[in-house]
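so i finally got all the pieces together for this one. its two components total, 456 residues if u count the protein bits. some of the lines might not be protein, just check the labels. i wanna see the whole assembly predicted at once instead of chain by chain like last time, that was a mess tbh
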Amino acid sequence: MALRMWASSTANALRLSSATRPHFSPLSRCFSSVLDGLKYANSHEWVKHEGSVATIGITDHAQDHLGEVVFVDLPETGGSVTKATGFGAVESVKATSDVNSPISGEIVEVNSKLSETPGLINSSPYEDGWMIKVKPSNPSELESLMGAKEYTKFCEEEDAAH
Amino acid sequence: MTSSFNYSTHLIPPRPITTQSTQRPTSQRPTASHHTTTEPNSSLQQTNKRRCKCYDMYKQVVPFAEAWSWQKSIVEERKLLVDGNEDGLDSLIVVQHQPVYTLGTASSEKNLNFDIKDSPLPLYQTERGGEVTYHGPGQLVLYPILNLRFQKMDLHWYMRALEEVVIRVLFSAFSLKASRVEGLTGVWVGDKKLAAIGIRVSKWLTYHGLALNVSTDLSPFSQIIPCGIKDRGVGSIKDLLRGSNRPSSTSGYHDEDDGKLIDIAHESLLKEFCEVFQLELCHQSISILRSPDR
């Protein structure tokens, strides 16, 4: 099932992920990109599960709403994360927000570039702005996360409600 | 984690406040649909306001660490409720602090005019956003613990709303025209910052908050670059009122009475806080916070 999803959505994913980040227009809200093949939490983090490692970051929707990220607080390698619990924080406009882990596991790598260049989260939320890599302790947790379509709808509903 | 939608036109909650024509001034940005009324017949306005627990210690000078631990424990309790799909009431803590410097998550030591290991005052590294600031007696500090799901899930909106509270207080209680400065969160009168804001959000629950200089001794600010802003100063309500050419007879009260300034600012802060966030305060005993059972 997962493989079929990958195969059929690769074209979509390429189209979306290779698109240049739309220039922010103050007059209209630009449509945030959502990548197929990733899983999403309702607190706006994404997970990319490849083999035994899952990469985690915050979504384009999240970074767009935060504005310029000026600081990223990340945990140490070797620590652990628990599903739906905070593992780090991002600061923008004098407000620091928790970032929650969509899954549980052991942290195997942390993106050290973010301490020098926190803005990578804004410019490349799904690639260079990745935050941590985790060895999932309970891969079934991934199944309860949202897929791209579901997450897109979730964002639209959340924005419409406020 | 946040949502925003042209926040500049949604400075206070979209829920309408019943309106009459108003004497109340607005802040710099247009909020045309959200005037409030001072009509005595205000029973219509009382509907739809969520209740908010208020721990009001505005005359007390409380150690920073104590108020910080109250906030954290209230937030932890709320998070459990939120995770269980129920939620409790919002809370507001109002205090003055003993002299202290606090840092935010990204705070740079470059904004300290002293060695961080050799601070002239107690120094706390906190989890809020924003740079270094000073808290001390004569400054009213508000710590709202709000669930933004009941307001607007938008951090930018929340910061603007906190600024709105102070801007209204300064005008309605002190006839001071305050403003925002784009890119510099806080409330300014001219080039002096009267109120600093720095918050933390976890699962849409806010904590930390704002600090308004009423009759604060501003000299400890000279040991830091407040909020990392080099070319602007810090002010207080007392200094601005004293420095004005307004004769004291028309200002309505005498400059020397710091306590009275604090009382007036406090009353106005609570009132404007309720208006902006559409909340009704329920005063709680402080002993609840200090109880070991919490």
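Chain A has five helices and nine strands.
The longest strand of chain A covers residues 85-92.
anyway lmk what u think
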